Amino acid sequence: xxxxxxxxxxxxSRGGSLSAASLRAEAQGVLGALGVQTRGEDPTVPxxxxxxxxxxxxxxxxxxxxxxxxxxxxxxxxxxxxHRVGTLTPGQARxxxxxxWRALPGFGLGHFVVRFQGTGRDEILAVGPSQLLRIDPxxxxxxxxxxxxxxxxxxxxxxxxxxxxxxxxxVTLGLRVLSASxxxxxxxxxxxLALG
Length: 196
Fold this sequence. Notes:
Pfam family, one: FERM_M
GO molecular function: integrin binding
Largest sheet: 7 strands, antiparallel
Number of helices: 8
Protein name: URP2 protein
Region (Disordered): 38-57
Structural class: alpha+beta
Number of domains: 2
Domain FERM central: 54-112
């Protein structure tokens, strides 16, 4: 009875629905946090999720957060997250992780350390599905970007390991790839242009 009452309070404080399914799932989470086993099995929660011990924040948090905050401050948040993810099968959890990873801003970018002609310092050229980015390695700021539609052609001199990019507006970039073979940059450009 306490678990149902606490579950109702949790759902109401978050503005959640007090439907029977959500209340039952939240009550199971409260019972799991208390370490109490129920007599009947809940078909919505897999047995492997109920047998899992409560998380130890010291094992899940990096040391810098352990010094900054006390583990008790994170325990309730970790239990809530574990309850949300704990009902998923391992395959569903991996799929959710991949979906979140794909939503990150730098997803799909191939980074190459290059030296542009006329400059004496190394820079980063990022090749993405729709654009090329010139990035300053010291700050990580994008100094210049070009759409793939701006790229007319590119040429690789295999003997000198030089790559030339011809862009709109009579812009020609000469560069030398330092972090990989120019063949890798050539394949990234060709692959993204063929797919786009």
